[in-house]
Amino acid sequence: MSGPALADIRACLEGVIPAVLATCDAGGVPNVAYISQVFHVDDRHVALSFQFFNKTRQNILANPRATVLLIDPRTAGYFRLHIRYLRTESAGPLFERMAAQLAGIASHTGMEKVFRLLGSDVYEVEAIENVPGEPLPPPPARAGQLAALRLASERLARSTTLGDALNAVLATLNDALGMRHALILMHDEPGQRLYTVASSGYPTSGVGSEIRVGQGVIGVAARERTPVRIMHMTNAALYSQAMRSSFERDQPDLEPVTDIPYPGLAQPHSQMAVPILSAGRLLGVVFVESPQDLQFGYEDEDALVAIAGHLGATIDLLQSCAEAEPEPGTAVAPAGSRGATLQMRRFRANDSVFLDDQYLIKGVAGAILWKLASDHVQQGRTEFSNRELRLDPSLGLPDVTDNLEARLLLLQRRLQEHGPHLRIEKTGRGRFRLAVARPLALAEA
């Protein structure tokens, strides 16, 4: 393929300026139309959004070759792509990525009721031409992306706990990449949901808030195992209001009081979610957003995918190290709990736990806390190990991917936010202590 490479003109594919598609019917009669989205698939392929069965669509099915005129929004330079239609995808990662971007473009242009993705038409790029003109000089190359990746790698390499690793990623996003609003969520595979374990840039942490797999930018990225990026604020329910709704509101059998508010921006204009993968398994999602349009481009996506990959490998490594620690002996709780009794109540239906009538946690993390508190009250124990939790069938941990460290971190942070009277403190690799400052009284419902 002659001319510039497709990777060199990715800025033209952000959907900032509509492209022009030229097709011909079987008799050679041309047709020209504006198109809202040309999507970068890889170094040799692009995808066009199929939204209507119109003249363009009829021509493509009759004659698979077409040209696309692109404009670089930074320089006003023109490029012409010679493309050949290969296939249409109506589901899967590519389709979902394009659907999310199209939702943002539609809302930005007031076309929410008109734009609806029916399919992703995949084309091979046979040639790229520089169209003669007088473009502006290109802006200076953005510096620091590679340095940011190095910083993230170094920080993750020094991490000895999951909390360290999550803090390392959030600090790098903020300090080195200017991504001020970020969330990290872990995957609960049996529950088909994601729960927040760390955040930065929000008034409240939102630790413990949940999003269903497949819901919103975060949920779609998790379900399809692919990055999802939106460059404009969208009014599409799938990517905005629905995402802000709690998981429980769709679960009529659960008490609404167990909702932990999602901490995201009220009106995000740019969003990007990248799955955390390791050995083909989904571990969670890294999510960033901004109140400004056009904040996250292809290079930001590249950087976040690399960081999420490092994080996934680090999580797996930390979990394997924790499992290698020998079983500690049980210990009797030291005397020292004093003051008013701390009331802990558990609801068996969903393992939700309340402290002094305030909701704290539910699900597997709630079951873990209840076991720790029960052992403390009945046996005076304060010292515990990850291994014994993994061997306890009453906790309902999955056999293969239990994410125990993530659930303990979630529990630890929820307790920190609740108050100083009940805490989880790490005492070594794979070991921790339940620190109880007030007498505990347990009740079940």
UniProtKB/TrEMBL annotation:
Pfam families: GAF, PNPOx_N. SMART domains: GAF. It comes from Ramlibacter pinisoli. This is GAF domain-containing protein. Residues 161-325 form the GAF domain. InterPro entries: GAF, GAF-like_dom_sf, Pyridox_Oxase_N, Split_barrel_FMN-bd. It comes from the Bacteria.
